[in-house]
Design goal:
The complex is a heterodimer of chains A (about 290) and B (about 240). Chain A is mainly α. In chain A, about 70% of the residues lie in helices and about 5% in strands. In chain A, helix 2 (about 40-55) runs parallel beside helix 4. Chain B is globular and about 45 Å long. The structure holds adenosine-5'-triphosphate and magnesium ion (MG).
Chain lengths: ~290, ~240
Amino acid sequence: MDYFAQQAINAIQLGSIYALIALGYSMVYGVLVMINFAHGDVFMVSSFFCFLLLLLLPVPFVAALIIVMLATAVLGVALERLAYRPLRNAPRVSAIITALGCGLIIQNTTLSLSPYSQRMPELFVPVTWNFGGVTVSSLQLLIIGVSVGLMIGLDFFIRRTRYGMAMRAIAQDRITVPLMGIPVNTMIALTFAIGAALGGAAGVLYASAYPVISATMGVLIGWKAFVAAVIGGIGSVRGAVLGAYVLGSVEVFTVTVLPSTYRDLVVYALLLVILIFKPYGLLGRPAVQKV
Amino acid sequence: MSDPMLRVDNLVVRYGDIRAVKGISFQVQQGEILALVGANGAGKTTTLRAISGMLPFEGSVVLEGRDLRGLTPDRILRLGLSHVPEGRGIFGGLTVMENLQLGAWIRRDKAGRARDLELVMDVFPRLRERVAQLAGTLSGGEQQMLALARARMSDARILILDEPSMGLAPKLVQEVFAVLRQLNKRGVTILLVEQNANMALRLAHRACLLETGNLVLEGPASELLVNPRVREAYLGAG
Ligand SMILES: Nc1ncnc2c1ncn2[C@@H]1O[C@H](COP(=O)(O)OP(=O)(O)OP(=O)(O)O)[C@@H](O)[C@H]1O
Ligand SMILES: [Mg+2]
């Protein structure tokens, strides 16, 4: 039982980080019907931003989080502006290849600057508590708390603010939105900024939890987060979060009963099973047919 | 004569190599209703899309002395021109109220927005009962009402409407046209594209007839209504 509780906490921690990244995939898909395959590398590079920041200036955790989120948002907007916007009306495959290429550029630039893994300086000196056999660290609580806080903030933003409303409108009908006086390009850039900033938060939290970072880590983690977004129903914000916690739990609990080499096998088998029964993901809906 | 509110000069619009609009000129005077009628494929929708900035064009479009060339639709709406597109352009996954709020996106004056919300609810009582409903679940007629109400929320001085009667039962068409007349009485200038030439010509002050990208007739709507050429082709009567 204690063991179970312990693993549950680990699952929530991992799921929280996946969720922050999955949101970026899902939001961009929602407004552009495009999969931003560079997003995993954006997440990766954000943990290097954090690493560099701490080398230069040992700022406290909250400051590091905010600075890295802003820097990553700028990167996300630059990607959209320079690489994706010129291709917005190009064939879908061109946009996909461009996204993959941008990811590889980010990854290889990082690799050339930092060929080896880096050890993160400690951002935070965690305190651990023991509750009847279950250990919880203040770092775990921080990771979960920051993630959940950001997700609630995002949900509020999308459902309750005028900018969120405009984003939902773009997801439904990008042609009509400008007729409402809404500058679509600005809104799309804002979507990329928010998605990348959340990926940046994930980068900081991930680097705090697993303090060895490398230029290639964005591939696997980004891919997992993408799978989480698909399981939840890509384009749906709540779906991305649900999918991420499902995925995090499946990973953590698989390893408790099976050898760890089975982990990805189980994850992808689960993806297939879910998509057979729910082709649009757990919370996804088929796109509204436009006449 | 005063300057027109909207002046279209030698408008040419192409889709690739095809010229869908072949150099038309017309003007809309402040406070009037101008109907643009013509058969399927005549270029009516294309003309409206060029005016509202959705399509690039040659020639010139001038709104209250301001050249609209190169402006995006959101900038043009800020200059006071609202386009209700063919097929209504309702956001079906948003509520009726959210659609209306999006219509008022460009407005900063809270009091004015609240006043206009009350006004459109009075004009369209059926929307008032359905503010919290998803717009996609409204009937076709209700969606058309919502599209008009939403355009009204922008406080635009000129509305350009693409077939507001499309797909509506005759009784609803009457209702929509009554609303247009009412909006016009309140000072809104209207450029109306219609297939339903009979209704449009009865509502409008002046009208233009478009045939395969060319403007072939222009005059007081009452004259087009009795013009043999129009009657034969569009009014189904000799
Ligand atoms: N996206 C497009 N690409 C190529 N040709 C187009 C496009 N849209 C319209 N056309 C062509 O341009 C011409 C004018 O079309 P338009 O939609 O303006 O006609 P319309 O007068 O609005 O007709 P309707 O009454 O059927 O709505 C038609 O011949 C049409 O086939
Ligand atoms: Mg048309």
